[in-house]
Amino acid sequence: MSKPLKQIHLAAHFPGVNNTTVWSDPAAGSHIEFSSFVHFARTAERAKFDFLFLAEGLRLREQGGTVYDLDVVGRPDTFTVLAALAAVTDRLGLTGTINSTFNEPYEVARQFASLDHLSGGRSAWNVVTSWDAFTGENFRRGGFLPQEERYSRAREFLATAHELFDSWRGDEILADRATGTFLRDARAGAFVHRGQHFDIHGRFDVPRSPQGRPVIFQAGDSEEGRDFAASDADAIFSRHSTLKEGQAFYTDVKSRLATYGRRPDQLLILPAATFVLGDTDQEAAELAREVRRQQVSGATAIKHLEFVWNRDLSAYDPEGPLPDVDPVVSEEHISRGRAQVRMYRDPVAVAREWRQLAEANKWSIRDLVINTGNRQTFVGSPATVARDINDFVQADAADGFILVPHITPGGLDPFADQVVPLLQERGVFRTDYEGTTLRDHLGLAHPGHRPDRRTAGSAERAAS
Length: 464
What we know:
eight-stranded parallel barrel; TIM Barrel; 2 domains; three-stranded antiparallel beta sheet; single chain
């Protein structure tokens, strides 16, 4: 008997401000005007995607002591954008990246519970930590947390938020539509938490939301991050986009779930993925090469090399050879506010490897950055891309993808119009939403009892 086809999960990542985006394209639009967010979200909803995903930037990036001017446009507040999008969409999930290192559980839990009510049960929280003391300078607490302490705080942060969400049980809410002020049980919303990182008590003032709790995402790839996802997350945002790497990551993370009393289907693996479409595979490949050259200008290539070399390389020609000097290994780094800095644990070894690659392939600095950086995940005609995505998911290398187009805000449109119908024809992607909440879209169980009576503060009451 053949194995049943897995249903593919698809989401859309609003590109924000980074070198993935091709600003020079005439079709490129604003990254901060609300009309861009609306266009992007409505395209994703028209295509029946599970959710829209927003990343987070808490400080402008700097390089060499000045603002990094190649990808800084600004990034609006996550909750403000998602709350506004809740009013112009009906079914699309709304996922926000919120930092557990610099925020407080009560505040974040209250914001997500409110968003879940406003959206009728479509909120999700991508829980991240921050190693970056530079970013922390923007916050009262500031400072630096070692990796183990960051994850310890994140675990307790999430557990505390869950205590707040769960402090309202379904049978404690009196359905008084006239006032919304009466409680069946005086304990409703009461909480006490005393732990290593948080010592709080009081009363949570947002009733149980339509999903009970927001869907929880996690994005770490370290051992601590994988365990955190296996123990507490509903989905993990992965960077592994090749079949072999994807299968290894998928198997590893899913195998950890049993340790925490969970089944493999209780955690979804969703890698980020880029795409380039053409009428033919050859046309798409040619376009992909041009897109990469637009994404990596000469100035961008030099800046990228400085991440590794940790020294000013502005005097070097991006179309010339790599520097023959070694990187500067120091706790002080030329780049601040970039997670990329942490990717190169041994910069001297990386520089040696890159010089060998450049020499063997006769690559300039720019050529090297283009060929060693993140390239498009799916390239081809719509039929080829639909086939490749389906093959990837059916081979248990992922449960779906979070798509990152290179044009804002219209870059998702060709995928929605040309690839999604082919996935629907294959029977591996929905033709319409079957439920109303993000948990429905993702096939996730509702955490705990929810009454049939309409709760005070519900989405329907707000809309009436």
